[in-house]
Amino acid sequence: MALIVLKFGGSSVKDREHIFNAARIIGRWRNEGNDVVTVVSAQGDTTDDLIEKAGEITHDPSKREMDMLLSTGEQISAALLAMALETLGCPAISLTGRQAGFQTDRTYMSARIRMLDTERIESELSRNRVVVVTGFQGVNQYDDITTLGRGGSDTSAVAIAAALHAERCCIYTDVDGVYTADPRLVPNARRLDEITFDEMLELATLGAQVLNSRSVELAKKYSVCLEVRSSLTDKPGTIVKEVTDVEGMLIKGVTKDKNVAVINVLEVPDVPGASFKIFSLMAQKNINVDVILQSSGKPDCKDVIFTVPEPDADTAVSVLTEYLPRFGGRSVSVDKNVAKVSVVGAGMQSHSGIASRMFEALYESNINIRMISTSEIKISVLIAESEADRAVQALHDAFLS
Amino acid sequence: MALIVLKFGGSSVKDREHIFNAARIIGRWRNEGNDVVTVVSAQGDTTDDLIEKAGEITHDPSKREMDMLLSTGEQISAALLAMALETLGCPAISLTGRQAGFQTDRTYMSARIRMLDTERIESELSRNRVVVVTGFQGVNQYDDITTLGRGGSDTSAVAIAAALHAERCCIYTDVDGVYTADPRLVPNARRLDEITFDEMLELATLGAQVLNSRSVELAKKYSVCLEVRSSLTDKPGTIVKEVTDVEGMLIKGVTKDKNVAVINVLEVPDVPGASFKIFSLMAQKNINVDVILQSSGKPDCKDVIFTVPEPDADTAVSVLTEYLPRFGGRSVSVDKNVAKVSVVGAGMQSHSGIASRMFEALYESNINIRMISTSEIKISVLIAESEADRAVQALHDAFLS
User: Fold this and answer.
1) Which residue of A lies nearest to B68 if distances are taken between CA atoms?
2) pLDDT digits (tens, 9 = 90+) for B295-326
3) Which has the closest alpha carbon to B44: B62, B63, B17?
4) What's the gap in Å between the CA of A53 and the closest CA on chain B?
5) Which residues contact B274 (CB under 8 A, 6 or more apart)?
6) Residue A148 CA, distance from chain mean position
7) Quick one: closest CA in B to A21, which residue?
8) Which residue of A has its CA nearest to B43?
9) B144-163 pLDDT tens trace
10) Distances (CA, A) of B100 to A46, A142, A166, A348, A386
11) In angstroms, how far is CA B21 from the centroid of its own chain?
């Protein structure tokens, strides 16, 4: 008898109809002879509604109290789903994150799982019950409720699958898998049958809609077979695993990220340690630096240009401006009208010519490339934000049509 | 430094405005130099909304899952109240029933408190925080969430006050105390400054609006000084304690209970044990029998007439009808158009003539008495439901004007 972990997102349990739909899916897995642990998110907009309630009280709530508040959302959906399962004749029990054994560090609102004590889950499974666990939450060493941050229910599901050596962890959502590009943007985007963990991580901007990246990292670490699947159709979706068919597609997807800003630090003296100072300032402020370009302009000077997440851009500029006199640069400026477009695929490791094909496709579409960044399974280009959608379509046509 | 326990009902924390009002009241107690533990109910209609959600799933939900569901209501209001307190500069922390140390028996939806481990509450108080505890809930020996039943937050508050030897337990609500009669019914009803525990218990139908009877029993057992007080005015309300001023009022209140039905079992053979069989049947079905009248009609026969809570009347009739052949009665019937009207007051113990004055007042109002029941501090009469309001007014005029 296999053990399966199923996770239902907020849209998949948003009302009576969807809860019973989820319960029927669970019932099917169980009737096929599997033990089933289910992880649920809060219903529909519940989490947003709770955040709004807190916002009526204060704009700066204690994070501990926020977790006390937010954790109720999953507790409600877990209880309702257990009721629906029992109504369908399927013995079930709901467990809070604490009851399910989730122990986390002390970081409220974005806690990390430290330990998962599966004793209670296993005891309920041995009594032939479907176990419904509240996603997104645990308790810290003070016995206080913590939450894992947005998308944390995926991580909860993968953690249970890893701890119990589940055969599969199915993430049920309202899309039927991972696509080669955003289907709203690229009409001929195709659903992938399989994708590797690394590709999935690189496809974060596509995957963010369906899969939290921390959960993918965890699944990779413990070799959990993940599947992204539609709760509407319950047809096979996209399997995320360590290695996929080597004869398969070179490129798995084209992504677009508009949440990027370019910081230009101009005419920095060309002495050792100058860029180091810039990037250590960014690190102190917890700002993630992505693509970096250094170029020589004037003699004895260089321009240091790099990207940061758009919400961090203003902080980056103000801290750099403050410290500019110390490392002697001329000016700091920011450009938020940029986008990062990437092609992703483990296959490109062993194939040359991907980059040139990519640049050619962009050239033919008359799209100017400002910066380039590559990894073993990804090539990203920085372009004007206004051209991003056209770039995605052109690259999808070149590699995936 | 005194310790004070404050309890805010659902109407006193129903929205932002009321939450801040409660927080300001808590702040005042604290600024007077008191340690404060606060118990909160779920906001406004939250509990009813959650019950409705469950009702959409099933008409017969598991009681365990209901408790999992319902307990979220208090968790939300506790977190919000703690946020409001911190916003006003008052250090605060919310605790679930479990964190606050409430251990209960295993009866879901109407659990009884078995033990209260105050370690966490005391530790938070010693850190100079206001402790906000979710009322109405605890955990059983399986570590599962239980609730104490409707009005259970009063019981939670009294239990904390008893365990911590609090100087006072203030029950904040939307009325300013206990009245001599329902003010909506009797315009000249007066607020009582003091009342004994026993009187408060007898005034249950008045008190039910403001005070749960289990909490009064618990307060009596542990001599907790209770006060019913308005969260709107925060003026002194009604103090409930062991002994009140002996020179005070003879009669403390007049109550009406329409939630009563009369069961008539006619022509039961007049042999030993006949009534016993009837009442043991009621006990088996957990039906509370109140006023009992046995009358002889035909020779060797008697009529057994008694009252039960109206919601239990149909069960009582059907079980009695089923067993009627065994004890040989002629017929079973029920009358739901009755009400019980009572005058309550510890003073009547030492004063004669209360009963005759009561019967005279009803006679003068032309109200027919069907059954009578007395205790040391109460006289109740059973009358036609249609005459109940008139009877309350007449008795209030006779004793309390």
Assistant:
1) A79
2) 766 778 888 889 999 999 999 999 999 988 88
3) B17
4) 8
5) B268, B302, B304, B327, B328
6) 13
7) B57
8) A53
9) 999 998 789 999 999 999 99
10) 26, 13, 36, 57, 56
11) 25
Interface probe with B: pick from A65, A75, A98, A143, most Cβ of B within 10 Å: A65
How long is chain A?
401
- Point out the residue among A53, A65, A94 whose CB comes nearest to the CB of B82: A65
Burial group, residue B359, by CB count within 10 angstroms (0-12, 13-18, 19+): middle
CB contact under 8 A, B69 and A79: yes
Contact B75 A79 (CB under 8 A): no
Query: Which of A68, A77, A98, A141 has the highest number of chain B CBs within 10 A, making it the mutation to test binding with B?
Result: A68
Contact of A371 with chain B, judged by CB distance below 8 Å, is answered with no
CB contact under 8 A, B69 and A84: no
Residue from B64, B76, B124 to probe the interface with A (highest A Cβ count within 10 Å) = B76
Rounded to whole angstroms, how far apart are CA atoms A382 and B265? 90
* Cβ–Cβ under 8 Å, residues B109 and B66: yes
Q: Which of A54, A57, A83 sits opposite B65 (nearest CB)?
A: A83
CA of B1 vs chain A CAs: smallest distance (Å): 27
When pLDDT is averaged across residues A217-241 and rounded to a whole number, the result is 94
Q: Is B204 an 8 Å CB contact of chain A?
A: no
**pTM of the predicted model, to two decimals?**
0.85
Give whole-number Cα distances, A328 to A150, A269, B299, in Å.
Answer: 40, 7, 117
- Does A224 touch chain B if contact means CB atoms closer than 8 Å? no
d(CA A370, CA A248): 31
Encode chain A in three state secondary structure: CCEEEEEECHHHHCCHHHHHHHHHHHHHHHHCCCEEEEEECCCCCHHHHHHHHHHHHCCCCCHHHHHHHHHHHHHHHHHHHHHHHHHCCCCEEEECCCCCCEEECCCCCCCCEEEECCHHHHHHHHCCCEEEEECCEEECCCCCEEECCCCHHHHHHHHHHHHCCCCEEEEEECCCCCECCCCCCCCCCCECCEEEHHHHHHCHHHHCCCCCHHHHHHHHHCCCCEEEEECCCCCCCEEEECCCCCCCCCCCEEEEEEEEEEEEEEEEECCCCHHHHHHHHHHHCCCCCCCEEEEECCCCEEEEEEEEEHHHHHHHHHHHHHHHHHHCCCEEEEEEEEEEEEEECHHHHHCCCHHHHHHHHHHHCCCCCCEEEEECCEEEEEEEHHHHHHHHHHHHHHHHC
Q: Which helix (H) or strand (E) holds B156?
A: helix B152-163
Q: Does B53 sit within 8 Å of A80, measured CB to CB? A: yes
User: Could you say which residues from 134 to 153 on chain B have a Cβ atom under 8 Å away from some Cβ of chain A?
Assistant: 143-145
How far lies B34's CA from each of A71, A230, B28, B105, B167, in Å? 31, 56, 9, 32, 10
Cβ separation of B82 and A75 shorter than 8 Å?
no
Residues on chain B touching A84 (C-beta within 8 angstroms): 57-58
Tokens 């300013």: give the residue.
B176
pLDDT (mean) for A186-196: 91
ipTM above 0.90, yes or no: no
Cβ-contact A340, A380 below 8 angstroms: yes
DSSP strands (E only) in B271-317: 292-296, 301-309
A80–chain B Cβ distance below 8 A for any pair: yes
Q: Does residue A155 carry a pLDDT above 90?
A: yes
User: Quick one: average pLDDT of A303-308?
Assistant: 89
Find the residue in A nearest to B134 (Cα). Answer: A68
* Interchain contact, A69 vs B79, CB within 8 Å: yes
B71 touches chain A (CB under 8 A): yes
